[in-house]
Amino acid sequence: MGDKNTPLLAVLQLLRKYNLKGTEDILRKEASLGDVEYENLDLPEVELASILTAHHTESDPYSYEFAYDTLKKFVENSLDINKHELSTLLYPVFVHMYLLLIIYDHNEHAVNFLEKFGTEQEDYCQEDLKRLSIVKHKDQIKGNELAEIYSTNKFVVQLSRDASSQLKRFLHEQKSSTVIINIINNHIQVEVHDGPGRTQAQVRATTGGILGEATRNGMYHIYLD
After folding, report:
1. How far apart are the first and last CA of the chain?
2. CA distance 214 to 211
3. Considering the entire predicted model, what is its pTM?
4. Which residue in 86, 96, 139, 135 sits closest to 117, CA to CA?
5. pLDDT tens, 168-184?
6. Are 101 and 110 in contact (CB under 8 A)?
7. Regarding beta strands 188-193 and 220-221, do their DSSP bridges make them parallel or antiparallel, or are they unpaired?
8. Burial class (CB in 10 A: 0-12, 13-18, 19+), 58
9. Nearest-angstrom CA–CA distance, 208 and 88
10. How far is Cα 10 from Cα 65, in angstroms, rounded to an integer?
11. 3-class SS at 192?
12. Parallel, antiparallel, or unpaired: how do β-strands 155-160 and 220-221 relate?
């Protein structure tokens, strides 16, 4: 059917990965993909990310789970001295991905996204997530206090210089990170502090607020491009 590296095949691979059988069967017929080609469909993650980024926008529901999973792996594999600060990005990125899925009318995908990754968030986030889970349609965002707060304010995250540099390198290297970059630039205020990365106990002592950490003097903000 021509070049194997097409957006349709990339989406098919994601559908198979997440076991979305009904949609997968429809697209497989559209792609005229034979059994042998289908069984051998195995694009490398970097190549898969490149295809999805080149041909999909934020309105594509399948890109969110892939991008969030990529961010999670980046945090998990980060240097220990930076890991705890970088992990504070996971919750606000997760929340805004959920809201974007709702805004783009991908309501079922939003529910699945919340169910899959919601329980992984910190314990102190769970009560807020219950309140947010009430929002299942974009018309419900207005009127939901928590959704409105997240939509109109920036979530504050504090990183050391080294952690912020590591984050920038990750986002520049990962072609799947367009959605994450947009969320960070539009909805997260990344403040950079001097000194080493903080320990888990130090991070926990300052996080947990509805909009993240309190803004402190002597810090500068970064914008990612």
Report:
1. 36
2. 8
3. 0.70
4. 96
5. 999 888 765 578 888 99
6. yes
7. antiparallel
8. middle
9. 10
10. 14
11. strand
12. unpaired
SS3 of residue 146 by DSSP: helix
Identify whether the C-beta of residue 102 lies closer than 8 Å to the C-beta of residue 141: yes
pLDDT at 44 over 50: yes
- Residue among 222, 108, 114 at smallest CA distance from 159: 222
Confidence of residue 142 (pLDDT cuts 50, 70, 90): confident
Tokens matching residue 206: 């300052």
Q: What is the pLDDT of residue 5?
A: 38
Residue 5 · residue 43 · CB < 8 Å: yes
**Greatest pairwise CA separation for the chain in angstroms:** 61
- 156 is written with which tokens? 């504050």
Please give the pLDDT value at position 92.
95
Q: Which two tokens stand for residue 13?
A: 């691979």
Lowest mean pLDDT among 3-7, 33-37, 92-96, 176-180: 3-7
Query: Residues with Cβ < 8 Å from 80, sequence gap 6 or more?
Result: none
**In contact, 109 and 61? CB cutoff 8 Å:** yes
C-alpha closest to that of 179 among 75, 53, 10: 53
